[in-house]
Amino acid sequence: MAAADRPHVALFVTCLVDAMRPPIGFAAIALLEAAGCTVSVPAAQTCCGQPARNSGDRAGAADLAAHTIALLEPFDAVVVPSGSCAATIIQYPELFDAGSAWHARATALAGRTHELLSYLADHRKFIPAGIALQATATYHDSCSGLRELGVAAQPRALLGAVAGLALLPLDGAETCCGFGGTFCVKYPAISNAIVDEKARAIEATGAGLLLGGDLGCLMNMAGKLHRRGSPVRAYPAAEILAGMAGPAIGEPA
Amino acid sequence: MSADFTARAGAALADPTLKIAIDRTTITARTKRASAIAAWPEFPLARALGRDIKDHVIAHLDHYLLEFEANAIASGARVHWAETAQQACDITVALCRAADARSVTRSKSMLGEEIGLPHALAQAGIERVETDLAEHIIQLAGERPSHIIWPALHKTREQVGELFAREHHGALPLDTAEQMMASARRELREKFLAADVGISGANFLIADTGAVCTVTNEGNAELTTTPPRLHIVTAGIEKLVPSTAHAMSLLRLLVRSATGAELTQYTSFHRGPRRPGDTDGPTEFHIILVDNGRTRMRAEGLAEMLRCLRCGACLNHCVVFRQIGGHAYGGTYPGPMGAVITPILDGLAASHDLPNACTLNGQCQEVCPVAIPLPTLLRGWRDRSWREGLEPASLRGSLALWRFVARRPALYRAATALALPMMRLFARRGWISAMPLAGGWTRHRDLPAPPARGFMAQYAARQKAARR
Amino acid sequence: MTDARAAILARLAGHRTDQATIAAQAAALLDRVGPTRPDRVRGAPDAVFLQRLASPAIGATGERIATLAELPEAVSRYLAAHALPPLVAVQPHPELAGLAWAGIATHADITPDEAVAVGLAHGGIAETASLVFHSGAHSPTLFAFLPMHHIVALHAHSVRPWLEDHIAADPPRNVNLVTGPSGTTDIEGTLVRGAHGPGHLHVVMIGSNNDADPVAATRPA
Fold first, then answer.
1. A touches B (3+ CB pairs < 8 Å)?
2. Which of A16, B239, B365, C27 yields a CA-CA distance of 20 to 30 A from B193?
3. Residue B420 to residues A42, B196, B332, B415: CA-CA distances in angstroms?
């Protein structure tokens, strides 16, 4: 057990970040280290099991949950750069029978699991220092983080410390973008109608950048903005906060 | 992803007028609710109280039904019980026939829609006059309600004007909503007073007095239930409350959540038939207590859904409802609350799309005035649909394969290492606009090209380099 | 039908809680009502009532007179202001029948297209500016629903702060809370005044109630 002021944190990077946006993972490591954490990335991590859980496959979700619990429980805290994946881990106890050993282990892990930006702001009292970006941006609140974990003020507070970055309000910032995990491919026409409305609201802000805390939602909105020919560029908030704003989502490296 | 739901949703998405109509009402509704809640900082406490009142009643429903029945009978009402929609309709039609009724007026009731009462009355050859403005619109158009508070939400004012110009007998101007209402007022005036039977629903059944509470803004409920010889109430058994005072707490929540007003224009408590000295009021007062799946909901893990006050806030805030409207859901109740209730009423096999066609964003629960955990209940249906094998084989197969791989980290890394470069073959200037197996995504939006190597591989390589 | 009753009750029967426990739970819920009431409702109930009545959300009008004897004059003024003929239906209430209706033709029956009806409310609720009507020989239900203009006299001393304050122990056949003129939001969600019920509601407050506890004082500390 590490000292209380230097927790040993496991980064659960999420399957989507692993496959689609590695810079988020490196930004998360940099931010956590800057916030005084020792960071490990357990090598056997894959997916939190959310696609199975949201499809009703509880057994499949519990199977992956057990794998993930065993992997992550040795650490002081688990940090996830995604509100919806963090919420899935926090809700692991629902997958097991109350009173079972796995339920107890899931509950213990849930209590130590956090979404990245809220962990930095609330638990590490972290404020980015020396980060500057001359840009206008608007922020979309991803629903799982917002409603299941109460992530709303923290990303704005952190982004407020970035010199030169002006945050413009997004009409309907708390309205779902239509991603919904498997929803967007199971009901593509409905998802498209929702994200089209979201893209129009983003364009109407006049901001140059779209920021967010969940890669799935950002890919959905960025992909729609690009299809619409919009010049708005989408970034994961963690990359901006870590001063690692390289190519935006979809821009060639 | 049954063809029915997808086809209905597709048709709705292809109708630009429908979207205009949905937006006009739901945007107004969300704005007005938000200001009503903002002006009521006590809302969180009131919401917790409302939830607890309903939970208390649902836990002791048999007790309250019996108390209500005894008090209603003491007030001179006749109380009937119906297990099914069919029984409820049969009782209603039998009462109408016994009264030799030719004309029936009806004040909007979602329970009436749920049990198919309009159809049953038509089958029995009884003329039905809908008195709520929206229900009147729907009746003239030969349609079904698309929202539980605004049944004609799918119609623009222009469409209502055209409909009234065709169907109404007066020659009043029909350019504004005020004029359309005035035309309907004139059209329906005499029918109110000529009806033999008035049928209403109930917002609350008051156990300790035996009274039935209904709320309306138009005043049509009293005009429906006072002049006729018979007043028939059809009410779901979950509408019980212990006392009038408990109903008041729920009214504060219901009205603000529905229309953003603090109270409906007319909040009425009916208790039995006309009394000696009364100069108006029905001579017979019948109450039909309807189960139609409610005891099943209570027994099968959906007791929290029986809190529902039918305010419609979850519909107005649902991103899916706001794109496809109410008819696409295919049942009596649309939106999040409908997606929970419809599988009970119509069977999960016919409706398993509804709990799945949801992003689980949680806004419905957030605005629910009695804190129904709608996403959790929808998950419950998803679990059951999966267990019962109702989800498509393609989905089951791909999830099983994914799980097999995700459970084996080495295999997972190898699969990622193979898949990412293959995906990159479809990319042009950073984006993939079409790719096999990704049509659900790329039909409507572009997919950012993945990196050549995933994070885990890149991280492992960095760690290895650092150790050297 | 008895079968349905038995079947429903059988499905609901579980572990039986005794009646006293259920009653205690129900009463405990009502103990929580006070802090849920909208705190911004403050002041003497009759003053709060008139103020809220005129808010755009309610859309009614109101005035105050000293005594009920002045009601016919107030009605005459209203008729003149709205260019209405001096012909009104008067609710068959003894307090109204005894008034001097000079210059106004009154009748006690109400017709389907009555232009103006004058009534006397059983009471008022300050929180929502609601009029309370109790049906009975002196108060036919339809008086509040058929006229286009409904003028209602309301004794200031009968206005109470909250929705819970006018609950009768043994209510009559029909209790109506009337909050503003009728309206509908059925076309595009926008409120339109004047639906099937009255298009205009005018409240004439009788006297004042300065001695009453201010509304806010009724809230628990």
1. yes
2. B239
3. 21, 73, 46, 9
**Total structural domains within chain A:** 2
In whole angstroms, what is the distance from residue B354 CA to residue B261 CA? Answer: 30
Contact B363 A176 (CB under 8 A): yes
Dmax over CA atoms of chain A, in Å, equals 54
> How many domains does chain B divide into?
2
Instruction: For the beta carbon of residue B269, count every other beta carbon within 10 angstroms.
Output: 24
d(CA B52, CA B67): 20
Q: To which residue do tokens 């007043």 refer? A: B231
Q: Which residue, C52, B264, C44, is CA-closest to C62?
A: C52
Structure tokens at C10: 């059988």
* Residue from the list B379, B431, B440 with its beta carbon closest to the beta carbon of A250: B431
The structure's pTM equals 0.96
ipTM of the shown complex: 0.97
Looking at the structure, tell me whether residues A107 and A78 fall in a common domain.
yes
pLDDT value for A135: 98
Q: Please give the residue range of the domain that contains residue B421.
A: 409-467
Q: Residue C196: which of B56, B131, B261 has the nearest Cβ? A: B131
DSSP one-letter code for C136: B
* Domain shared by A108 and A200, yes or no: no
Query: Residue A1 above 50 pLDDT?
Result: no
Q: How is residue C170 written in tokens?
A: 């043994």
Shortest distance between the Cα of C1 and any Cα of chain B, in A, equals 6
Distance from CA of C98 to the nearest CA of B (A): 20
Q: List Cβ neighbours of A80 (8 Å cut-off, separation of 6 or more).
A: A11, A12, A14, A48, A86, A89, A113, A114, A115, A116
